[in-house]
From TrEMBL:
Recorded GO MF terms: beta-fructofuranosidase activity
Lineage: Eukaryota, Metazoa, Ecdysozoa, Nematoda, Chromadorea
GO cellular component: cytoplasm
UniProt cross-references to SUPFAM superfamilies, sorted A to Z: Arabinanase/levansucrase/invertase (SSF75005), Concanavalin A-like lectins/glucanases (SSF49899)
Enzyme class: hydrolase
Organism: Acrobeloides nanus
Family classification: Belongs to the glycosyl hydrolase 32 family.
Entry keyword Ligase: no
Segments forming domain Glycosyl hydrolase family 32 C-terminal: 392-465
Residue span(s) of domain Glycosyl hydrolase family 32 N-terminal: 32-336
Protein's name according to its UniProt entry: Sucrose-6-phosphate hydrolase
Length: 487
């Protein structure tokens, strides 16, 4: 779980009996999970239990700037429409081993109970332990009397020991935990196993940076280890990876290793590190397997250094839309697509027609709670740049450099889509967020953006002497309904 400069004096926030109110709705989201008020960050404990989906999140109900975090809790019957659980706080820092925060973790179903596995945080002296809490109804949780279940990190690790992610294989529980080595700036993920979630055996390092030439940062937050279409994936949120051209443009970003894993030797033969989302605001991703066998991901729409103007309104933070993970046909990349169920949010259709663009065109589409589908044939769409503008941001395909570009103010994020003849964009706007899915998940870009009021969508096609002409695109757009109802 990311700890950052915005949260000053971590551990000194005392939870009052009062809650704060949201004072302005200008940036509140319509179809994303966000806190009722106060601060939120990492998704935690994504799971399915007793016919319902559960999404927990790091939560400070009384402070939009952060504090000693609890676990907030949202519940859904369909993975799309969510409501806050009652009580909204599942676990809070009230024990000696977690007095300064119930930090990130995961959830599994065991013996008819929903079990939360989380990192307990103590600031002075700094120490982190692994703990569990259980529930028979999926709402009211009791911390295990024998906590912590893992009291100390490996002998060669730092006291940074957090973000446990649990799964089961052949009747045995496994957990992967973030724990850098004592050698500075060498991140790693360590592995344990258990028969009962209470007694754990250390198995060693699952993966680690080999040397400085790998450029894998200083910490791997929120590790996830899972099987996807014949390959094992280690997904993690890396802190401090150095920028390399267009790669690793954010200081912190989510990436993954693909490889083969042997449960007998606990050896993970991994690939290089690849970025998962190329936008500005995407961190602390978590994955779970749903009842349909799909691997579903949600993440925190933030990264170090991004603005959070909603803090002035009494709240901060939101989760991405649920996304399905898919392995590419050649087995070398992980792709993300919006889950199919999101189509149930579609309401009024703004447009469904071909559009001819020479210069710019206003299709009269608001960017407040909208899904836009834009298909561009590069064989029939001359021009240098073709795309859309919304407020101070732009999304376009640059034909000259063959890159998809997301621009925020004077900064850009870009991705090479390869040798293509078609650019298919599916873009989700929600008041202060945008999520871009290109060419069936070949690239994704996630960002927050803040305009009050929400901007309208402007399409544009830029020509040049070398690339003149009018662009012909197919455009669809839908209003998306709220996921919250009266909540």
């Amino acid at each position: 779980m990311l700890r950052f400069i915005l949260v000053l004096f971590m551990g000194t926030c005392v939870k009052s009996i009062y809650t704060i109110n949201v004072t302005n709705q200008r940036y509140r989201l319509n179809y994303h999970i966000m806190p009722p008020a106060g601060w939120s960050n990492d998704p935690n404990g994504l799971s399915y239990f007793n016919g319902q989906y559960h999404a927990f999140f790091q939560y400070c109900p009384d402070n939009p700037n952060g504090c000693s975090t609890s676990w907030g809790h949202s519940i859904s019957n369909d993975l799309v429409h969510w409501h806050y659980a009652q009580p909204t706080i599942a676990i809070s820092p009230n024990q000696p081993y977690d007095r300064d925060g119930c930090w990130s973790g995961s959830a599994v179903v065991n013996d008819g109970q929903l079990t939360l596995i989380y990192a307990g945080n103590v600031q002075n002296p700094f120490n982190q332990t692994i703990n569990i809490a259980t529930s028979t109804d999926g709402v009211n949780f009791t911390k295990y009397s024998g906590n912590p279940v893992i009291a100390i990190p490996p002998f060669d690790g730092t006291t940074g020991f957090k973000d446990p992610k649990v799964w089961r294989s052949n009747g045995t529980w496994y957990v992967v935990i973030s724990n850098p080595t004592q050698q500075p700036n060498f991140p790693r993920a360590v592995l344990y196993k258990s028969d009962d979630l209470k007694q754990w055996t250390y198995l060693g390092s699952l993966a680690a940076e080999v040397d400085d030439s790998e450029n894998l940062g200083s910490m791997w937050d929120d590790p996830n280890f899972f099987y996807l279409n014949g390959k094992f994936i280690l997904l993690t949120s890396a802190e401090g990876v150095l920028r390399d051209g267009n790669r690793f443009a954010n200081l912190f970003q989510v990436g993954y290793f693909i490889g083969d894993f042997d449960y007998q030797t606990n050896f993970f033969n991994r690939s290089d590190f690849y970025e998962l989302d190329l936008g500005y605001d995407f961190f602390a991703a978590q994955v779970f397997e749903d009842p349909k066998g799909r691997m579903i991901l949600m993440a925190w729409m933030y990264t170090m250094g991004s603005p959070l103007p909603e803090q002035a309104d009494g709240w901060a933070g939101a989760l991405t839309l649920p996304r399905q993970l898919i392995l590419s046909e050649d087995g070398t990349r992980v792709k993300m697509v919006p889950i199919e169920e999101l189509k149930s949010l579609r309401g009024n259709q703004y447009v469904n027609s071909p559009i001819f663009i020479n210069g710019q065109f206003d299709p009269k589409i608001p960017c407040d709670s909208t899904e836009v589908i834009m298909n561009i044939s590069l064989l029939q769409a001359p021009g240098k740049r073709i795309g859309m503008r919304f407020g101070y941001m732009q999304l376009y395909y640059d034909r000259q450099y063959k890159k998809l570009v997301l621009a925020r103010n004077k900064d850009i994020r870009q991705v090479d889509l390869g040798n293509i003849t078609q650019v298919n964009l599916r873009v989700f706007f929600d008041k202060s967020s945008v999520e871009v899915f290109a060419n069936d998940g070949a690239a994704t870009m996630t960002s927050r953006f803040y305009s009050d009021p929400a901007p309208g969508l402007i399409l544009f096609a830029e020509s040049s002497n070398e690339m003149p002409g009018t662009a012909n695109v197919n455009l669809q757009a839908f209003h998306l309904n709220s996921i919250y109802g009266n909540n």
